[in-house]
Specification:
The structure holds 2 protein chains of 2 kinds.
Chain A lengths: L2 H36 L2 E3 L15 E3 L3 H9 L1 H16 L3 H12 L6 H13 L2 H12 L5 H8 L14 H26 L3 H9 L4 H12 L1 H17 L2 H6 L11 H11 L3 H33 L1
Antiparallel strand pairs in A: 1-2
Helix pairs in contact in A: 1-14, 3-11, 4-8, 5-8, 6-8, 8-11, 13-14
Chain B lengths: L1 H14 L4 E6 L6 H15 L4 E6 L2 H13 L5 E5 L2 H8 L7 H6 L2 H4 L8 E2 L2 E2 L2 E5 L2 E6 H6 L8 H13 L3 E3 L7 H24 L11 H11 L17 H5 L3 E7 L3 H6 L6 E4 L11 E3 L2 E5 L7 H9 L4 H10 L15 H12 L2 E3 L2 H4 L2 H16 L4 H16 L3
Parallel strand pairs in B: 1-2, 1-3, 8-9, 11-13
Antiparallel strand pairs in B: 3-12, 4-5, 6-12, 7-9, 7-10
Classes of the chains: A mainly alpha, B alpha/beta.
Chain lengths: 304, 406
Amino acid sequence: MTFWERNQLKLAPFLFLAPAIFVFLVYVIYPIFDSIWVSFHEWNGMDKSGVRANGNPNWEFVGLKNYITLFTDDEEFYVSLFNNIRWLIFSLLAVPIGLALALFVNQRILGIRYIKSLFYFPFVINAVVIGVIFTWFYNPKYGILSYVLNFFGLDPIPMLADENLATYGIIIASFFPGIAYTMILYITGLTGVSREMVEAGRIDGASGFTMLWHVILPQLRPATLIAIVVTLVGALRAFDLIAVMTAGGPWGSSEVLAYKMYQEALFNFRMGYGAAIATILFIIMDIYIAWFLYRLFKNERSEK
Amino acid sequence: MKKLLTLVILFTSTIASAGTLVVNSNQSGEPSKSAFDAYVAAFSAAHPEVTVVVNEFEHEAYKTAIRNFLTAEAPDVAVWFAGNRMKFFVDQNLFQDVSDVWADAGLNDSMASTKGSLTVDGKQYGVPWGYYQWGVYYRKDLFDQLGLNAPRDWDEFKWVCAMLKKNGITPITIGTKFLWTAGGWFDYLNLRINGYQFHMDLTAGKVSYEDPRLDAVFDHWRELIDPGYFLEDHASFSWQDAQAPQINGEAAMYLIGNFYVPTFEAAGIGDQMDFFQFPTIYEGVGVAEDAPTDTMHIPSGAKNVEDAKKFLAFMSNKEAATNWAKMGGMLSPNKYADKPTNRFSIMGAKMLAAADDIAQFWDRDANPDMAGAAMEGFQEFMVKPDREDKIRARLEKERARIHGAL
């Protein structure tokens, strides 16, 4: 037997995986380390051996300077960080709302299939389109929101032009696809709910909220976990809606870390500074993902 | 899309041989695209030995793409902007000196008016193909109803605003969502109050944002902000959104560039619209105007420099220069080009010919990160004028970081 014939079964999986691993290494792993390396430099994104107009080199090692500036000398960084936290907390509202909708459409009524697909529709639309629709919706001059408020005799609220409201305005827009997604997760989860348990609960006198809380929800735990994880990752990645709806404004008050990174690196020619923001965002996400993986493995082990 | 186009460039420039000219253009969207295509067609007719390959980019995406393609796979000609935007690439040695084209094609004479904005250390690094004026586009019909005339100085301007406001019309429409429209207001107030040289020193980072000479600029701005002369909630609107109130007859004036003309003509209010020059504030300050200039350059990495120079020199051709500018709604920098026929372009050409100095526009004159931070500050000032000191302190900190301590 040749070497190949002896080890074919062991080697074949790696051969099949090789292209994917190669692509993953080149386009995901390498850029992560490269970004961290760039974050210790001042770089304007041009030829690394070149010189700037003021005589400084394009590419210069500055150690931790970018991080020090971020934490001690950049108010906008804290605004972005705080906005990221607001995103993390408030976007979670999509989970209970999605559950409520799932319970609502999980009934045998004529035409409910169409209603289901209507509720799911926002998830299929591109985020940019959603951003544009909501921008029109909030338009303080011609938007529906101001018409409705006007009908009740209230002044229009300039959602996206108010430094305190802009982020909330965008988070509400993110609910539109977010709720649709959590709803689908729960609908799938509900089909797996054991009928016997519901019957048993009914015999024991549970109904309404008690039934939901003590019988249904525990069985939906896997769906809840995924819903929360996806929502939180979505919140940390928030970018497209911000770019479309406010471009980070008014005066930077709705920026999040991802948007600030893009702004600094691509528009302000500060690659190193942008990379430092990216690294911090990466660390924040890592902490969260580590916690999540830990939970996941623990759950799986206890199930076994 | 951008990636795809980059691939196209990589491909075309590797197969490019003598006789093939690769041109990267941001002239996407009408009418710019047909105007540019007409120039290319005219050039090809005059130089049948050259095959022109045009890579067209979306206008905004081009601004980031150019940094990649100039260093990675340079085309033979790149369309770009004059002023600091060009200087950045000149400093990086990414654009070639084309002074010989200026001399050989007689551009030193025919394009004398825009030569300064293409010159770094006495050498020219590009050829302009079009420019346009900024100014106040206003609803003549609303002015007539109230018996108002186009204001010539600051007091008249404020009086016009007050009268419009009193009659329930928003005096000035503006959409600051994407910031640069606020930069236009700052440009004009500073140019009219402190003059061109001070403005250029400021954009070059040589003057502090806390300089007392800027107090008057912000004070005058406040005279319009405090009484509510600007469109309410303007931070919600893009510059296009801000057209609606004027087209609907709810707002009277708009400080904007001449590129606005095709829109309001298409909206059917072309006859009701008129134009006036930004009013004088202090007597004795030279009249400077914003007139952004669009240009063509030869990247340092160009393979077919010989034909690229022909392409640039072709701007000395009167018909081609006239057509490109005219079809694109611009003014031709070639003084022998036929005079414009659109009345707003005619007014613009006259105004710019009489101007003492020409500025490029805030975000083309200033360093990119300074321009962005400053325009954010201007937007904030227009909504929260009480924060003036805080905003100026922040801008000064940013200026010191970018340009160094004074």
